Amino acid sequence: MFLDRLHNARPNGAYVVESFDVTALYTNVSSNDSALQAINELLIQHEGAVNMYGFSIQQLMTLLKECLNCSIFRWSGRYYAQMRGLALGQRLAASLAIAFMSKVEAPVIDLGPLLYCRYIDDCLVICSTQEEIDRCFELLNTQSEYIKFTREKPKEDWLPFLNVQISLSENGYITKCYRKPSSKNILVHYLSSHPSRTKRALVRNMYRTATSVCTGRQQREESRNLARQIAIFNGYETVAPDRCRGNHRHTNDNSSDNKVPFILPFISNEVSAAIKRCLRRASLENSVTIIEIPPSNIRRQLVRNRLYDRLCATQNCIICPNGRDGDCMSSGTVYLISCKACGDEYVGETGRPLCVRTKEHLVGKRKPNTPLGTHRAQRHNGEDFEVGITIFAQESRTQARKTLEALWINSKNPKMNSREKCLIIMRDIGQYINLLF
């Protein structure tokens, strides 16, 4: 831990402290050269301590290189390959960047500064003289043509590093909590749809961190006031710091391993409490453990492959104009067909690509025994009509999709669906309608 190493170094005002930062580390790491070389050297150095799972170093390097070569992506129908740098979303990126930085910093560590600490691309260096720290900075900037370091010196005797501010004095050093000026101080809001235990743990950990990084009473009080302001800003107006000082219980319930998991989406604390009461009334609290799945959020909706790269490949498509490009290729959908002439509707479901099922519907307009063919004969005297298609829902599981179709038929009461099918659906789900609506 950084604070432990700082304590063991015991610096004071006679030393010089600065922080170094790499400019765009991930973008400038040469994944095909320096990073792979750094990994290879680390594997050779620690071969006896690393579990290779039966692979040789050469085989692992071959696998790693193939993984890095799979950085091909598509945008607006065109394919691109990343030639240099590491993709931020790549799982290997962080490990490769750390290995690469260990190779870059090796000459500086050999110089023997009083303290050298690094977290990813942020470095803190303490040396005896300014000349020594200048030498470290120059040496770091000569290790790679792509990697450039910037430096920051103490301002008003305080130097920020990660979430800590450091000040060297004659009697030693002082630390306190730090948040960047650009930080929006946004936490999970008190009124958000999250379990109460999650929000309590979040605020408790914030207070614990704010106080644990401080060396003196004055700094600890300043950090606690900062944490209190952040908590109030996010709606936690009734939170007292004394309640978040570690008086919570740590439970290690190993008996839950033998319980049957009951997986539910998290809706609200009231619903969760009601479910637990039901389990207690049924004497199942010792046999069933509730696992709550968090609801979808904006991040999960936005950070998805192909979200911005959907293309419509269907000629004269009648699906995508009513939704998004690429909807016509969606599989496992519950859909609505609307007659543009009279407004009558048809609700259906399909596990195949929607464009395939739509083509069958359009061909069926010429057949009297299909929903659209019957509609053409009865409502339009055999004249052709145009339709529009809208996707109601997507569901890959067949039974769940058919249930959604039944619910939409009950809700819309579409005139193009056969009356017999509607009656069967109402008979099957009628007993559950009052529970759902």
Describe the structure.
The protein has 437 residues and is of the alpha+beta class. It has four domains: 2-174, Alpha-Beta Plaits (2-Layer Sandwich), CATH 3.30.70; 179-250, no CATH class; 254-300, no CATH class; 320-436, 3-Layer(aba) Sandwich (GIY-YIG endonuclease). The protein is built from 14 helices and 14 strands. It has helices at 2-9, 25-28, 34-45, 57-68, 93-111, 130-140, 196-212, 217-233, 269-281, 298-302, 354-364, 371-379, 398-412, 419-436, and strands at residues 16-22, 72-75, 78-81, 115-119, 122-127, 149-152, 159-161, 164-169, 172-177, 260-265, 288-293, 333-339, 345-350, 387-394. A four-stranded antiparallel beta sheet has the order 4-5-1-6, with helices on both faces. It has a three-stranded antiparallel beta sheet with strand order 7-8-9. Strands 13-12-14 form a three-stranded antiparallel beta sheet, sandwiched between helices. A hairpin with a 2-residue loop joins β7 and β8 (164-169). α7 packs antiparallel against α8 (217-233) and α13 crosses α14 (419-436). The chain is elongated. The protein starts with a helix and ends with a helix.
